[in-house]
Write a structure and sequence with these properties.
198 residues, mainly alpha, 2 domains, 59% helix, binds zinc ion
């Protein structure tokens, strides 16, 4: 009988870490892993630092990535612009999703109708549509990743599930736009009035 070692989990320090300050506070026990705590350097009335018990250097690295996702969700995504557009979107994620849906349907409709006549204007319009679809898809993925894995505290779990499903439908619409536009690219290049561009 061979003397085989039992497989064991990777050994690493379990530490209380703040991603904002990049500060390690103390080592702790494994049972405290993933516990959120308030950073001592944070504002006691309105905490903004992402501080958690993590495992090893990779735990610290991914907590810093989570910090950027959270910052994107709370500051960068379009619904946060102009102070939530004067409060119109504050706590109203449904409105944001509905408006995105309308924008994507209009873009899909425009993409469908712009594939016949080849011109510089067509290329310009399709490029704008692709940029909008790409941005909305990127934004959707980042915000939903942050909601599910970082901020984590939905007003209601069922509401969050429905909104996530609706967001995935929007990603499908974005792909539909790419599928409509990109097959037309070889046709556009073939018929491009290159002599007028020179
Ligand atoms: Zn901190």
């Amino acid at each position: 009988m061979t003397n085989q070692k039992k497989p064991s989990r990777m050994q690493a320090d379990v530490i209380a870490y703040c991603a904002k300050c990049k500060a390690e506070y103390c080592e702790t026990e494994l049972k405290n892993l993933d516990y959120n705590f308030q950073c001592p350097k944070d504002d006691q009335n309105g905490p903004h630092h992402l501080a958690r018990v993590v495992k090893g250097p990779s735990g610290k690295f991914w907590l810093r990535i989570e910090k950027y996702l959270l910052a994107y969700e709370f500051s960068v995504t379009p619904k946060r612009w102009f102070k939530n557009w004067g409060g119109f979107f504050k706590g109203r994620a449904g409105r944001d999703l509905a408006i995105r849906f309308v924008i994507l349907i209009v873009a899909l409709n425009l993409a469908s109708s712009l594939c016949d006549k080849v011109s510089i204007k067509l290329i310009f319009q399709n490029t704008i549509i692709i940029i909008i679809a790409l941005f909305l898809m990127f934004d959707n993925l980042i915000v939903n990743t942050s909601i599910v894995f970082v901020s984590r505290f939905p007003a209601n779990p069922l509401r969050s599930v429905l909104m996530t499903i609706f967001s995935f439908i929007q990603i499908i619409i974005s792909y539909s736009i790419f599928y409509i536009i990109f097959p037309s690219v070889p046709m556009i290049v073939r018929h491009l009035p290159l002599e007028k561009l020179v």
